[in-house]
Amino acid sequence: MLVHPEIPWNTGCVGRTCLGTGAVLHLVEPLGFSLGAKEVKRAGLDYWPRVDVRVWPDFGAFLEAMKPEAEELFFFTKTASRSFREMGCAGRMFLVFGSESKGLPPEILQRFSGGRFHIPIYSHIRSLNLSTAVGIALFETLREGDVSHGWSEERAAGGAP
Prior knowledge:
By secondary structure, the chain is α/β, with parallel strands linked by helices. The protein has helices spanning 8-21, 38-44, 59-66, 106-111, 130-141, 150-156; strands at residues 2-3, 25-28, 53-56, 73-76, 94-96, 116-117. The strands form two sheets. It has a three-stranded parallel β-sheet. The longest helix has 14 residues, at 8-21. It is globular, with a radius of gyration of 16 Å. Residues 151-161 have low confidence and may be disordered.
């Protein structure tokens, strides 16, 4: 889930990663761009139309509709004390990331203080690129599972990569 994303190509890249892992991309408005923007489509390549994108007018609407349990919500912020490697594994997981310039809104961080995680980085930089951070966290949740590598089977059969 991206809360108030600002950069279209980050959202396009996240969408492509979601499609490749079978994840749903939840977006919380306001968005800093139109989902029809050429930058979103370019980053998402020809996959973008197949991405399962759900847009919410605000975080409350998402909570009301999806009714996540507290243990299903994982909020990413550089100020969290726990590493993403400490995330538990729930049957349903919502990885929540804030905007590129502001991160998650303070009211969300205050309300859900128990489910905050960070991705360790050196202090030489302020943050990772949003799409990179989402990829790291998403693949960590899949580490124990069996993610299909169908591309290798398709190549062996002479199909498209």
